[in-house]
Amino acid sequence: MSRRLSRPSSAASHRSSGSSAHDSEFKVECKAAYLSVYDDLKDVISSEYDLSAVLQQSGRNPTRKTLAKYWTDETDYLTFDDFVNICRREHATTTDDLMKAFRKIDINGDGYISLDELFRMLTTRGEKMTRDEVQRMIDEVDENRDGKLDYGERILYYSEFCNMLMSTTDECKKMSMKMMEKKERKKKRPSNTPRRADGQGPSHSLRSDDMPRPSPRVKKDKVRTPVGSRSAKVSEPSNLRDWTHTSSKGCFFIDADEGGQIISHQYTLDLAEDTNVFITMQPNRIGDAGFTDDGPVDTAVYVLREGSSSNKVVTFTEQRDSKGRYCVRCDLSAGRYKLVPFTTGCRLYERSAGRETKEVKLIKQDKEDKIVLSKTFKKALEDIFDMADLDGNGLLSREDFNWYNIRTSGEEVADDEWDVVEGNIELERGEITKTGFIHLNQMEAEDNDGDTDDLWVTLTSMGFNKSLVLNQACPFKLDVYTEDCRDASLEVVGLEAQAVMLEDAVCETVTAKGEVSKVKGMKDLSVYTYIGDARATVVVENQSYSKIRIQLDCSKSKNVVSNQRDLNHTLTVPSNTTVVGHHLIPRDEKAEWIVRCQENILR
Fold it and tell me: Are 281 and 342 spatial neighbours (Cβ–Cβ below 8 Å)?
């Protein structure tokens, strides 16, 4: 039987509710907050993270201690009525609350809040901020540019700062009301698709800057249930067939020339209107690529908002749905976003040459001494064609062929080169057919008089080994659905190393959402551990003035595989730098997995 929140006594409820008018307004606000995250009031809160999200939408900023009070180890779910009762007990943040808090921050009692005082508070409690973020907050309201906030004699300045903080709460409430009105209007429209109201789990609609976060780590072992046996936390919208759909294929490649790092296609998403979006990503089976004996290569996509100076992480796909896709559902405002694919590398890594069998033949000579391609080579070329066909229409446009050429030769296709293609091979509607693509490689083999060096460059750059096994690449498919924006554009814009784009983004999400522990005897060294549904990440933050060498020993974990080839991994962390130490995923997705990590400083 599910353990739910015990209800307050009628007397307590009466004291909390006040007048009927006030109570009515209060319930409308609660309803709006609930419907900004769920599709129906019958949906239940199924996790501590969901409880935090819906409380934030109601203008509350729950601490971990507050969440632990209502979401215990025995809690299975909470209903809308439970949520209303929690809101009665936990009042929304007020200006008086902020005033009291800032008096506590002002340690020396001089009536000013210095950067150091504010930094100490905002980087050690709650949602942690960086020193630069704190400085920017002060700069916005520090009118006399003295680097301090005055809440005493010049109370106006403090009020402006307070209003800035409170505006986040107001925006959440406004967005909640807007979402509720929108969903209620949709309910009144005739629809052939019944709305979901089975109470088995919410259909999320997260705020644009929400990101999946794990439950707080505890001292005991973190045991994760089998990935395949979990009920989906992100469900496909029931009316998805009515949404606008755009998609693209892409691929992760192991780049041997760059030390075995992973590169992939990069995308931009242009939205003409504010909209609810549903994004999915999954390996695309081509041959055996992307799938190992232990399971599929993990895939994800980070959504970054394009800005003038930096790209802000908006959200990322972390949870798996019942179809095995990595998904995220959220609201995005109109504008341009970068979609950056990501994989941990736990199942996609550079294989040693010793594991390969002998080199297969690519060409042979027929009875007339003409050069012909071997059957095995033709099959590999067919797979390459499918990988290069990014829009999935069965043809290679000049744009598709250009990205293929960038990957295999490092150069774009010039006009005269495309003229050669158009004049010599089979085209359909101005695009290359599969037969024409194979003929193009036949021509290359003939031009080189049987020398296969250039052919092998193409094959190895596309992820094939000498046995023509596709084991150094993982094709994937990216789908974007928009509910309210009929003019959504998804475009391939790059083929880059994911470390360049995502190292900071991954560290940002882990330090913001993971659990932190200080390394014994090292006050400026912290280790953050993020444990999600299907992936764990360990990050080391070095705030000291010298580089350190740290050993991260995950060898006592159970049923895990790391992106590092050794679970007991040593890394060097430069001063004032944050780096990823381990990515961990379950070796066997059908079994439980346990994450244990011990750190040791090497002097």
Answer: no
**Amino acid letter at 65?**
K
Q: Do residue 467 and residue 580 come from a single domain?
A: no
E strands of 385-472, at which residues? 427-428, 431-432
pLDDT at 182 over 70: no
Alpha carbons 452 and 22: distance in angstroms, whole number: 80
Residues 340 and 385 in one domain: no
Identify whether the C-beta of residue 490 lies closer than 8 Å to the C-beta of residue 281: no
pTM to 2 decimal places: 0.64
Residue 304: name the closest of 341, 329, 273 by CA.
341
Residues 45-101: tens digit of each pLDDT:
888 878 888 888 887 878 878 888 898 888 888 999 999 999 988 887 776 766 666
261 touches 255 (CB < 8 A): yes
Residues 170 and 57 in one domain: yes
- Which domain CATH number covers 522? 2.60.40.1180
Q: What is the mean pLDDT of residues 132-140?
A: 64
Same domain, 325 and 386: no
H helix runs in 212-297, sequence order: none
Helix, strand, coil percentages (3-state) for the chain, rounded to 5, are 35, 30, 40
Query: 312 or 424: which carries more pLDDT confidence?
Result: 424
- Asked if residue 214 lies in contact with residue 50, where contact means CB atoms within 8 angstroms, the answer is no
Nearest to residue 364, comparing CAs of 372, 356, 376, 354? 372
Give me the mean pLDDT over the 246-262 stretch.
86
Q: Mind listing the pLDDT tens digit for each residue in 45-58?
A: 888 878 888 888 88
Residue 142 maps to a domain: yes
489: amino acid identity, one letter: S
Residue 143 lies inside a defined structural domain of this protein: yes
Task: Give me 539's structure tokens.
Answer: 């990050």
In a domain, 219, yes or no: no
Position 305 confidence tier, pLDDT thresholds 50, 70, 90: confident
* Helix (H/G/I), strand (E/B), else coil: 569: strand
> Are 416 and 425 contacting, i.e. CB atoms less than 8 angstroms apart?
no
Domain of residue 517: give its range: 505-602
In contact, 557 and 592? CB cutoff 8 Å: no
Whether 339 and 266 have beta carbons less than 8 Å apart is answered as yes
* Phi, psi dihedrals of residue 576, rounded to the nearest 5°: 50, 45
The tokens describing 207, both together, are 């705020």
Query: Interhelix angle for 398-409 vs 375-388, to 10°?
Result: 120
DSSP 2-34: -B-PPPPPHHHHHHHH-SHHHHHHHHHHHHHHH
- Same domain? For 336 and 358 the reply is no
State the number of CA atoms in the 13 A half-sphere of 220 facing the CB: 3
How many CA atoms lie within 13 Å of 576's alpha carbon, on the beta-carbon side?
A: 3
Separation CA 305–CA 29 (nearest Å): 29
Distance CA(438)–CA(378), nearest Å, equals 7
Read off the tokens for 337: 């976003």
CA–CA gap between residue 313 and residue 395 (Å, rounded): 34
What are the pLDDT digits (tens) for 471-482?
Answer: 889 999 999 999
> Can you give the C-alpha Rg of the chain in angstroms?
28
